[in-house]
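In this supplementary section we document a worked example of the pipeline. Step one takes a protein sequence of length 327 as its only input; no multiple sequence alignment statistics are reported here. Step two produces a three-dimensional model, which step three serialises into C-alpha cells for compact storage. The input and output of this example are shown verbatim.
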Amino acid sequence: MHQQIDIPALLDGDRNALSRAITFIESNRPGDRESKWALLEQLLPHTGKSKRVAISGAPGVGKSSFIDRLGAYLIASGHRVGVLAIDPSSSNSGGSILGDRTRMTSLSAHSNAFIRPSPATDTLGGIAARSKEVMLLMEAAGYDIILIETVGVGQSEVAARYMVDYFMLLLLPGAGDDLQGIKRGIMEMADLLIVHKSDGDQLPLAQRTAQHFKAAMHLFPPKPSGVPVEVARVSSLQNKGIEEVWQRVMKYVDTTEKNGYFQRWRRSQEMHWLEEGSMQILLDYFKNSPELQSRLNALKSQILSGDTNPVAALHTIDHFIKKLLHD
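The serialised model returned by step three reads:
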C-alpha cells in the first residue's frame, strides 16, 4: 500500500495524496505496519516546521466557530491550516466531529485548510499516537499551522498537550464565578484562557469573568515556559479578538525560542510519542496474538463457570505473557 502513496504529490500539498496517506496510517492491519514506518521515516525530515496549537473547552463553548474564525484569519495572512479533532468518544458514537466540520464553514470550503477527525481507536493512547502521526503528515504536506481541537473533558487534553506548543482553553462568560467547577488540571495546562462569546448581553459578564481569572492567576504555579498565563476576551460572532489571540501565540513562540524552552518542549513531545506509541504497539501485538486470544477466551469461560476468578486469571495471563516475551 505504501508504494501507492504519491509522496512527491503529498510533499507538494496535494490534498488527495494527503488523504490517502492518512487513511493508510490509520490502518490497523498488522501487514501494513512495516510500510507505515517506512512512509513516516521518509516524510519525517519534512515535518516539525509548523506551529502546533490546541484549542480546548467544554461542549457548547464555541470551539468550532472560534477555530473557523482563527483559521480564516491565518489563511488570509498567508498560512495553510490543518485542523485535527481528538475525540475519544468518536469510536462509540461516530462523535460530533463531522458536525463540527460542517460548522467550520469558512475553513471547510477553503483550499488552504485541511480538516480531519481523529482516528477512532480503542484506547486514548492509540488516539494520541495516531493523531501525532496524522499531524506529521499534515506538516509534510505544507500545513504550517496545526490546530488541534479537543472535547474539553476527560484525558484528551493530556494527549493534546503533548502534541502542541501552545494550549488555549475557551471558557464561557460566568465560568469565573466558580473556579472549583473547572478542572484545575486543564487550567494548569493552558497558556491562554479565552473568555469566548464576549458579545451582546453577555459582554458585561464576560468582562467580569476575564477580570476574575486575571486576579486568580496567582493561585497557579509558575509555567515552566517562563511565560505567564494570559487572559483574553473573544467574540467569534463579531470577529473580535482573533488577531490579538494569534499575536499572543507568536509572542509566546518568540519568547520560548529565545529562552530555549520551545525546543526542550518539542523533545518532550517526542518522548511522550515514543512512550504512548510503544504501549499501543504492545497492545496491538497482544490483541493480534492468536495464542493470547485463545488463552483469554478459555479464562473467560472458566470465570463464567465459576472455575476460576479474575485475580487467578490475570496471574495466568501475566505468566503467559512473560513466557511469550522470553520465547
